[in-house]
Structures are given as structure tokens and as C-alpha cells.
Design a protein that fits this description.
- The structure is a single chain.
- The chain is an alpha/beta fold and about 325 residues long.
- The protein folds into two domains: about 5-130, 3-Layer(aba) Sandwich (Rossmann fold), CATH 3.40.50.2000; about 135-320, Glycogen Phosphorylase B (Rossmann fold).
- Helices cover about 35% and strands about 20% of the residues.
- The chain is built from twelve helices and eleven strands.
- The chain has helices at about 15-20, 20-30, 45, 70-80, 115-120, 135-145, 170-180, 200-210, 225-235, 245-255, 285-290, 305-320, and strands at about 5-10, 35-40, 55-60, 80-85, 100-105, 155-160, 190-195, 215-220, 240, 255-260, 275-280.
- The chain has a six-stranded parallel sheet with strand order 8-7-6-9-10-11, with helices on both faces.
- The N and C termini lie far apart (about 50 Å).
């Protein structure tokens, strides 16, 4: 089609980082009527965008970029002419692309993805906060699973898993927190609990499920994909989780999201008016003093108490 403005977004990175582009995509489409957006990303990150009808072409690369199949796909992209190329990896791949305008994320900049892109576009980061898009069919399917065709209690969501034990708040504390929040005299009495997480978190999810009164646990069956979880979170009133992808998904959904932080940098937390971080008495710097590379097989979240988490949640929710 004549008059198209081809845009290439390179997000060859982890899903939490790739998610940052979801709000940018919507803004580019609204600002540039003839924009044709191609998103090149990893297989894991592509799952976030599979329902996004604002993306004209989605290319997902599986495994290492030097594999023959990946090199062929990237070579094909390099033969096209782009009006704009944005690389948030960042990678050297963007140098291969023929683009009139090019923006590559600076990994040494203390500003995150949204702040850097917003500065380039002269926008407030809150104008391009992540918002995933889900198909009406998926939305309806998830709503049916949650409601089961009748009026049901409202929902809170917890994600107790983490890829590293250092930033995983103890599962038993999630169980006590859930019980405290949902008990008869609690702020979320008669609510149900939906537990989400990655396949690698199966044991942690099951432990929380077994430690929570069965009548209060919500089951939606099967493997919970990121978009199904996002659709469910849009119908929830509260999310609590560690510093993982699920926190970013929750922040994007618009629900009240509370991220539990220890060996994590608040600078990497979601930029959203509905998200808040909670940490114990130690700063990230103090934790790094005992674990400089943040790789020790030890939990750094033990000084974040249940009372502290519950108090922050209860106060914030009461003020909303």
C-alpha cells in the first residue's frame, strides 16, 4: 500500500522488558496513521503480543540468534527499508537495518526502556505505559471460567514464584497473607484467590494452593498463559507477587499491583499509577554488600514481614 510508514521494533529480550513496547505500539499507531509495525522478538516474548491487532507482522525467534533459521529471518528484515527502527535489546542487529531514523536503547543509562523512549518521543512515560491487548474471544472465555455463569465473589491474585530464591518471598508467608486478607474480618472477606506462575514454579504454586482454604482458591484449569492471566487480572481487585514478569503483567492490567522487593532495583519496577513496591528494612545496596553479584543461593526476602506487607496493602487500598 502506498504511503505506508514501516516501523521495525526489535525486542530480542526477556518478556518483562519486551512488555514495555505495548504502550509504545498503540501510541505509534495513533500518531502515525499509515504506520505498519513489525515486531521482531523472542518466542517467549511473542506470547504477550499474539492478540495484538495493532501489530501488522510478528516475527518470533526461538533460541540463539546465530542459528541458521534466526539468521535467515533477520537477514530478510535487513533487506527492507524502514522509516523507524527501535531496538530495546539492545543488540547489534539494529545496525544491519536500513532505517531513516534509528533508536537503540542505551544499556548504561539509568533510565529504563519507557523513560528512554518517552524522552526520544518527547512524551511523559505515563502516556505510553504498557497495556496488553486481548481478543474479545479470550476475554469472554476467561470471564466464563471465572464467573462460571453466575454471580461469584471478587478475585485477588498472587504469584509466589521467582526464578531465583534470592527474590522469592517465602511461600508460607503468602499463605498467611492470603488468609489474613480474606478472613471474615479482613479487608477482602469472601474474596477468592487465583494463583498464577510459570511452569517452573509448579511446586511453589502447589504449596500455596495446599496452604490456603480450598473453598477460597480459584481454579481456572490447565496451563495459565500470560494473556489468560492478564485477562483474569483485569477482573481482579488486587495482585501481590515477587519481582517477576507477573508483576509487570498485573501493572499493565490496571489492577492494584504490589511487588515484593529485596534484591531488586525499584528503577526496574513497572511505571504505573496502580503499581507499588514493598521492601523490608534493607536497601538494594545493603543487600549487595553481602551478595555483590546477587547470585547466592539464599533468600534475601526474610526481613520483609507479613505485617509490613499487609499494612501497606491495607492502607493503600483504603486510600484508593
Amino acid at each position: 500500500m502506498t504511503g505506508e510508514f514501516p516501523i521495525l521494533l526489535l525486542a530480542l529480550c526477556e518478556p518483562a522488558k519486551a512488555l514495555s513496547l505495548s504502550g509504545v505500539i498503540a501510541r505509534l499507531k495513533s500518531e502515525i496513521p499509515h504506520a505498519r509495525i513489525t515486531l521482531a522478538t523472542t518466542q517467549a516474548s511473542a506470547a504477550l503480543f499474539q492478540d495484538d491487532d495493532l501489530i501488522d507482522e510478528l516475527q518470533a525467534f526461538e533460541g540463539a540468534l546465530f542459528k541458521l533459521k534466526s539468521l535467515h529471518g533477520l537477514s530478510e528484515l535487513s533487506r527492507r527499508k524502514w522509516g523507524l527502527c527501535v531496538d530495546i535489546g539492545p543488540t547489534l542487529i539494529s545496525r544491519m537495518m536500513k532505517a531513516k531514523t534509528r533508536f537503540t536503547l542505551n544499556p548504561n543509562d539509568t533510565a529504563g526502556v519507557l523513560e528512554q523512549i518517552a524522552a526520544k518521543l518527547r512524551l511523559d512515560p505515563l502516556e505510553i505505559t504498557p497495556r496488553l491487548r486481548v481478543s474479545p474471544r479470550r476475554e469472554a472465555q476467561v470471564r466464563t471460567l471465572i464467573d462460571n455463569g453466575r454471580e461469584t465473589a471478587p478475585l485477588i491474585v498472587m504469584a509466589p514464584g521467582a526464578g531465583w530464591i534470592g527474590r522469592r518471598w517465602p511461600t508460607e508467608r503468602f499463605a498467611v497473607l492470603a488468609t489474613r486478607l480474606m478472613r471474615e474480618d479482613g479487608p477482602f472477606a469472601n474474596h477468592r484467590l487465583l494463583i498464577i506462575g510459570a511452569e517452573a514454579d509448579r511446586d511453589t504454586l502447589q504449596a500455596l494452593r495446599m496452604a490456603t482454604p480450598r473453598a477460597q482458591v480459584m481454579e481456572i484449569g490447565g496451563h495459565v498463559t500470560v494473556l489468560n492471566a492478564y485477562a483474569a487480572l483485569r477482573q481482579a481487585v488486587l495482585f501481590v507477587g515477587n519481582d517477576e514478569l507477573w508483576l509487570h503483567i498485573a501493572a499493565a492490567s490496571g489492577t492494584a499491583a504490589f511487588g515484593l522487593f529485596g534484591p531488586s532495583d525499584e528503577a526496574d519496577a513497572p511505571i504505573s499509577g496502580n503499581a507499588m513496591t514493598i521492601r523490608g528494612p534493607r536497601s538494594l545496596g545493603e543487600i549487595q554488600a553481602v551478595d555483590p553479584k546477587l547470585k547466592q543461593n539464599v533468600c534475601h526476602m526474610l526481613d520483609l514481614t507479613i505485617d509490613r506487607v499487609a499494612a501497606v496493602i491495607e492502607k493503600d487500598m483504603a486510600d484508593r
